Amino acid sequence: MKHYIGAGNPMHAQFEPKSAYRAEHFSWAFEAGVGTITLNRPERKNPLTFDSYAELRDLFRALNYATDVKAIVVTGAGGNFCSGGDVHEIIGPLTKMRMPELLEFTRMTGDLVKAMRHCPQPIVGAIDGVCAGAGAMIALACDLRYGTPATNTAFLFTRVGLAGADMGACALLPRVIGQGRASELLFTGRAMTAQEGQAWGFFNALHDSDALLSAAATMARKLAEGPSFAHGMTKTMLSQEWAMTIDQAIEAEAQAQAICMQTEDFKRAFEAFAAKRKPVFGGD
Question: pTM (2 decimals)?
Fold first, then answer.
């Protein structure tokens, strides 16, 4: 979670805005508190490279300190989300690396998922067409996911001779769709259809391709207009409570909610309710 740092606060310089961020290995756009990441190598179904992995990791880490960004949309260009690691630019070179180098790579890819889960902003995935391998893991790391009837999601690591345990798949996927379903997908590498994904809870909703990004952006704007400090707290608790007992979770939520009750947004919501108007949240 994060707290709004005003211009008069002596710590303000430590919190860099990302509204004017210039991405090198994907597209970044910012409007009304929403940052949109577009994987944009459509001619090859938006595969990842060593550089795009690292830049995505670094951007999501930096979002911890970007109080201007309230929500994130992640999508792909050209009717596909992401085909995973680029076969020629990543897979080929990996076959020539030794163990220390391979471990650096696998830790870097895992760090991307950790950065997405640790950044306080809600992340909305707009996922069309091909969503495979590391692309499926980026989708899984989002907080909300919207697909289309044409979306096919494949955790296809076993298809290239690797374990289904990659980038946190064995921890995250069973929590979203259940242990048995996750086991099938991770052992076989088969594609999960959009209809299966919606029925199993992977997708929050399906939309036609031409309406997908608009639906994701609408949700992101709605989240951006909400109490961003409280949203960050919700995301933190959703993650931390996986490792808690029920009693521990209830106590942690009591403390979290008491903290949120000290915010100006809590007061704004009450005042707006009393005045019968919509609250305007400030994130503090």
Answer: 0.94
